[in-house]
Amino acid sequence: MSAGIRFLRLLAIFGGILGLGTLLPRAVNPYLMQIITLSGINIILAVSLNLINGFTGQFSIGHAGFMAVGAYLSAAFTFYLGRDGVAALAAAGVPEGVAVSGFLLAGLILGGLAAALSGLLVGLPTLRLRGDYLAIATLGFGEIIRVILLNIDAVGGARGFADIPPWSNLTWVLVWSAVTIGVAWNLVHSTHGRAFISVREDEIAAEALGIDTTRYKVVAFVLGAFFAGVAGGLFGHYLAYLHTNSFTFIKSIEVVIMVVLGGMGSITGSVLAAIVLTALPEVLRPVREYRMVIYSLLLIVLMITRPQGLFGTRELGLGRLGRRLRDLSVAR
Amino acid sequence: MQEFLQQLVNGVAWGSIYSLIALGYTMVYGVLRLINFAHGDVYMVGAYAGLFSALWLRAGTEPSLGKALLVLLFAMAVCALLGVVIERAAYRPVRRHPRLTSLITAIGVSLLLENLGIVVFGARPRAFPEIVRSQRLELGSIVIGSHQFLVLGVALILMLLLQLIVHRTRIGKAMRAVSFNADAARLMGIPTDSVIAFTFALGSALAAAAGVLVGLYLPRVDPLMGLIPGLKAFVAAVLGGIGNIPGAMVGGLVMGIAETMVVAYLAPTYRDAIAFALLILILLFRPTGLLGKREVEKV
Fold this sequence. Notes:
Chain A is an all-alpha fold. Helix content of chain A is 77%, strand content 0%. Chain A has one domain: ABC transporter involved in vitamin B12 uptake, BtuC (Orthogonal Bundle). Chain A has helices spanning 3-27, 30-55, 63-91, 96-126, 131-150, 170-188, 191-201, 203-208, 213-239, 249-262, 267-283, 291-305, 318-331. The longest helix of chain A has 31 residues, at 96-126. Chain B has one domain: ABC transporter involved in vitamin B12 uptake, BtuC (Orthogonal Bundle). Chain B has 11 helices and 4 strands; from the N terminus they run H-H-H-H-E-E-E-H-H-H-H-E-H-H-H. Classes of the chains: A mainly alpha, B mainly alpha.
């Protein structure tokens, strides 16, 4: 694909997001808006976890821990520095919207980097472990993070972190979803992506072919953690309130279920599953107490009948359609 | 010193409960190489089975040793059955799939039991009847509730029984054979399916006993009570060397003591973190656990 078309496509995507972000709040009620925004955040989480679980085959159930790191750090940044910073910049003549965006972006990236760093710290030692040991280690790490955050008074401790600047909105969430999907898509379709997949398919064979498996596992882990941290930051700045109860083992499991349902190794599958599973509890509101029962039954049945997830490793969408059209035109 | 001994007794009592749960994890891992995430929730069901049978027998208002024993046996029987059903319905169909599939299935079963528990038993915690009257025992200068001894005593008896079953019976020998090499065991004519089912029954019965003991000790049960103790007991199993039965007992005790000591002398709010910190340390320095054997990876 030529650079021109690539650029045009990028432009179209971001134009579309901006349009959606400005028009949708006028068209739908706040309740629906919240579901859509939270779907976007879950898309970031699911796609980033898919890099680790789906493509690299490393079973992590500590994604909520990374999300928490990003959420709390970026919230602390805007809470303690952002407000005053915006006021100072506004006094210096910078438009408020620009200042807010700048500080939010800085906070999100800071949160993402902190999450990535914790991903590195966890990943370097634990990724030498196999399968279920890794799962348990990541779970343990997630819980440790949560307990530590619960004990830091500067971010509210057990009371929760209230009064976070509510700067995040649908546009921000959609832009970051697009970035996450773009990075993940391009990565897994590159040489490095082949290396990730080779680690998943057969670690010993990959190693025998000279692939530095530990390094690729750590890279996938760090990248996944980065986006989880960003998602956490968006989450905190959207709800303006954080509590460690949002980041328990259950949250990690929820994201794992999204990845599994969509198919381990299918980005579009993760996106679709994130949307469906965010909306499902709302759809199931009339049977509220049975909601999680249905959820878990669904998971078990899915694992027994279709362990590769709904889409497996296949992707869904325009690409396939486009290829089919191209094949047709070539044939003609 | 006096307080230290007191804390040590508390730690050992909790530790023996962790040990009982950890045994189920370790036995199932031994035969199936599966982390049975639902095991903590089987323990919860055991506690509720104990609760309901105690209410039905009126064991709380007019307690007797016979009734207490009946409550314990009933809970163990219910959970043994539950363990077999879970294995048959959820784990056997995915046994030949990749291991991650069965891990996720186990998480699914765990979520299912918890949420069914909320729907059936209600989300609110319930008081567990005092099926054995508590007495204060004075040993020199330390005062110990009799429940601590009861917990430890019952746990020790059950572990002894388990050792007898595993090392002195035919089915125990079959279990060890399946754990050593399932394919070879099948080729030797051992009915691996029923051995695996038996292992689930045994482990789940032990978890039920732990549930009843916790009910007596705390005395409170709720549908999510299995989540954290289950994870910690799993950590205890890893600590001792997963797949290793004496290891699970040792790991449980270490965990119980470590946790009590941290709460008593360091930072009570870090109670839930200590287990996982221990876990990560053990995984880094001795992934096979305290008593585990090193496994050679073969292509």
